[in-house]
Design goal:
This protein is of the alpha/beta class and 453 residues long. It folds into two domains: 2-220, Spore Coat Polysaccharide Biosynthesis Protein SpsA, Chain A; 249-433, Hexapeptide repeat proteins (UDP N-Acetylglucosamine Acyltransferase, domain 1, 3 Solenoid). The structure holds uridine-diphosphate-N-acetylglucosamine and calcium ion. Calcium ion binds at residues 101, 103, 222, 224.
């Protein structure tokens, strides 16, 4: 049986933030959520989060996680003190306890599985994750023998200059036989530079303890300041991009784009520079996205082109072309083979197949049929200052340049709206509608001052 405990009580002073450190976001998820996610393959029977600084806020942010148990560490007297708070909760628990710092968000699930396998195979009292770091400053140093049995962990600030040369560091990820840990936890002393109760001391008391080096040291980077948070984001992004490159996606300039891990891409998608794909977004095969586009929570069907545009919470059908400079938001559905062009904004609007909205339009709360042509500058006046109203436009209808459709309004099929019209009354099928002042010409007219003499 496995229990998981995550240390999330610290303030994170070095973040210089009003937000507790473990709630800082990394690629759309908080640090503590990422740590929890990395343990899910182990199917833990208990999941304990140790909270302290801004405990209520941390609890509230984790509401959507089922079966979490929160343990409060009211005073933050160190990582050992934090795990001491678990003693009453896990009384009589007969299994292994995985302890993770809440600020180690890049762990791969396979790494934890490997650590647990080593731990169980050798019947260790504890197994700890370590890494050889090029710049080990700030981390606890781990000393072990050739068989990878632990000799000692010493915190950076408690090291002698010679000890500090050791590049093997403690990742802050531990697997304990709970019964063994529970026995030594009450004996911790705060005899160190920080006057804190160190979990690493508990490890030092146990035997046998084995050390497992991670292959990719980036996995165990701890987040203590904003610079490390930014570095972690880059690492996360590199992982995501490398996976899509391997899966048959072209990314023209990887450094200039970002992709959330929740995004799905088809083969032969081409992602041009300065493009950002976020949230629950799916892009089908053959699409060319960007340069300069932001797509969030949207479905882009096959062979679509999106150029310098922003699309959120929307869907675009096969073979359509979007942009440059289009903004689709709040439940827009674009049919197949449509063209939506320069400076067009749409909100909560459905347009049928082969319908074009090519220039300078705003369509809100509108439903358009197939093969409609919306002329340059056509606007739906959907808002009367209090309520939003719908516009309906039938198949093959064309609006002239600069028409205003004052909603609620309905235009039938095969309607032509004359340029510059302001339409306020419904129009049936198959008609021309003109709603503008007739042009008058006064021959020979001049301003008074320039009258002919
Ligand atoms: C700790 C380890 C160090 C290791 C490093 C890896 C100890 C004594 N040192 O150092 O060996 O190399 O992590 O990143 O454990 N926390 C609490 N309650 C507390 C103190 C801390 O819950 O009273 C939580 C923090 O919120 C954080 C985690 O424990 O998530 C680690 O604390 P932090 O202060 O960052 O430890 P480090 O100094 O980095
Ligand atoms: Ca840390």
């Amino acid at each position: 049986m496995i229990a998981v405990a995550i240390l999330a009580a610290g303030k994170g002073t070095r973040m210089k933030s009003n937000l507790p450190k473990v709630l800082h976001q990394l690629g759309g998820k908080s640090l503590v959520e990422r740590v929890l996610t990395s343990t899910q393959n182990l199917s833990p029977s208990r999941q304990i989060v140790i909270v302290g600084y801004c405990a209520d806020q941390v609890r509230a942010e984790m509401q959507s996680w089922p079966n979490l148990e929160f343990v409060e560490q009211t005073e933050q007297l160190g990582t050992g003190h934090a795990v001491q708070q678990v003693l009453p909760v896990l009384q009589g628990f007969d299994g292994d306890l995985l302890v993770l710092n809440g600020d180690v968000p890049l762990l791969r699930p396979e790494t934890l599985e490997k650590m647990l396998a080593t731990h169980q195979k050798h019947h260790n009292a504890a197994t700890i994750l370590t890494a050889q770091l090029p710049h080990p400053k700030g981390y606890g140093r781990v000393f072990c023998d050739a068989q990878m049995h632990l000799q000692e962990i010493i915190e950076d600030r408690d090291c002698t200059p010679a000890q500090r040369q050791n590049q093997r560091i403690n990742a802050g990820v531990y697997c304990f036989r709970w019964s063994a840990l529970a026995e030594v936890l009450p004996d911790l002393k705060a005899e160190n530079d920080q006057k804190e109760y160190y979990l690493t001391d508990a490890v030092n008391y146990l035997d046998p303890v084995m050390v497992l080096d991670v292959e990719d040291y980036q996995e165990i980077l701890g987040i203590n300041d904003r610079k490390q948070l930014a570095t972690a984001y880059t690492i996360l992004q590199d992982r995501i991009k490398d996976a899509w490159l391997a899966a048959g996606v072209t990314i023209v300039d990887p450094d200039s784009i970002t992709i959330d891990e929740t995004v799905e891409l088809g083969t032969d998608v081409i992602i041009e520079p300065q493009t950002h794909l976020r949230g629950d977004t799916k892009i089908d095969t053959g699409c060319r996205i960007g340069p300069g586009s932001l797509i969030e929570n949207s479905r882009i069907c096959a062979n679509v082109q999106v150029l310098y545009s922003v699309i959120s919470d929307s869907r675009v059908g096969d073979n359509s072309r979007i942009g440059p400079y289009t903004h689709l938001r709040g439940n827009v559905h674009i049919g197949e083979k449509c063209r939506v062009g320069n400076f067009v904004e749409m909100k909560k609007t459905i347009i049928g197949d082969r319908t074009n909205v090519a220039h300078l339009s705003y369509l809100g709360d509108a439903t358009l049929g197939t093969q409609v042509n919306i002329g340059a500058g056509t606007i739906t006046a959907n808002y009367d200052g209090v309520n939003k109203h719908p516009t309906q436009i039938g198949d093959r209808t064309k609006t002239g340049a600069n028409s205003v459709l004052v909603a609620p309004i309905r235009l039938g099929t095969d309607v032509t709206v004359a340029a510059g019209s302001t339409i306020t009354k419904d129009v049936g099928d198959d008609a021309l509608v003109v709603a503008r002042q007739r042009q008058s010409i006064l021959p020979g007219w001049r301003p008074i001052s320039s009258k002919k003499t």
